[in-house]
Write a structure and sequence with these properties.
Layout (H helix, E strand, L loop, with lengths): L2 E6 L2 E6 L10 H4 L4 H5 L3 H4 L4 H6 L2 H4 L4 H4 L4 H6 L16 H5 L3 H6 L2 H5 L3 H5 L3 H4 L4 H5 L3 H5 L3 H5 L3 H5 L3 H4 L4 H5 L3 H6 L2 H6 L1
Antiparallel strand pairs: 1-2
């Protein structure tokens, strides 16, 4: 097998290509890796990382993750991401439905408005009501009409009054009959007159 090389500071460590290099490092060592070190790691290595190892990646290095590397993140890796790391992920990163459902409420709250706006409707539909309910009004208002229209009746019922007030009238105008019928009295009461007329 061909050897791969990773630069840790000024030191070069040659490893065999079938040796789990990145995953064999301690969390303390991973914390010292540069963005280039992380960017050069084989995607398969990220599937082997523990929660502690993922959490140790610096915010600078986490930004260098490629879509191919991030696609290898399973439950251990997703739950290891910190609220500081999550908004630093590259805008080229896409969350799969499974990956998104593995985030806890604090992690969901850490997602940027850009990340929320980039979620596919399939991924958004996979969000638990407990995840959706903690989104800030700013994050919620970043959703597109297509994303809002894709919300299930159960998800719509989980929305808070402040989240409802953050919806543009253009989004409310696209509510489906099923979504409208799922609204609670308190949600309807939270709407402005302009928003109510848009339904």
């Amino acid at each position: 097998d061909r050897a791969a090389a990773f630069e840790f500071g000024a030191r070069m460590v040659a490893i065999n290509s079938d040796t789990p290099a990145l995953s064999s490092l301690t969390a303390a060592k991973i914390a010292t890796l540069s963005a280039a070190d992380i960017a050069n790691a084989p995607p398969s290595e990220f599937a082997r990382l523990t929660k502690a190892q993922v959490a140790a990646i610096s915010t600078t290095a986490i930004a260098s993750l490629s879509p191919e590397q991030f696609a290898k993140f399973g439950q251990n890796q997703m739950t290891g991401l910190t609220a500081v790391q999550l908004p630093r992920l590259s805008n080229t990163i896409s969350f799969s439905p499974t990956q998104l459902t593995q985030l806890n409420q604090a992690q969901v709250q850490a997602l940027s408005t850009t990340q929320m706006a980039a979620l596919s409707t399939e991924t958004l539909d996979a969000m638990a009501t407990t995840q959706l309910s903690v989104l800030s009004s700013t994050s919620f208002s970043a959703l597109s009409q297509a994303q809002v229209q894709s919300l299930t009746p159960a998800q719509v019922r989980a929305l808070s009054a402040s989240q409802f007030r953050a919806l543009p009238t253009s989004d409310l105008a696209e509510f489906t009959p099923e979504q409208i019928s799922s609204l609670s009295t308190s949600q309807v009461s939270a709407l402005s007159e302009t928003q109510f007329q848009a339904l």
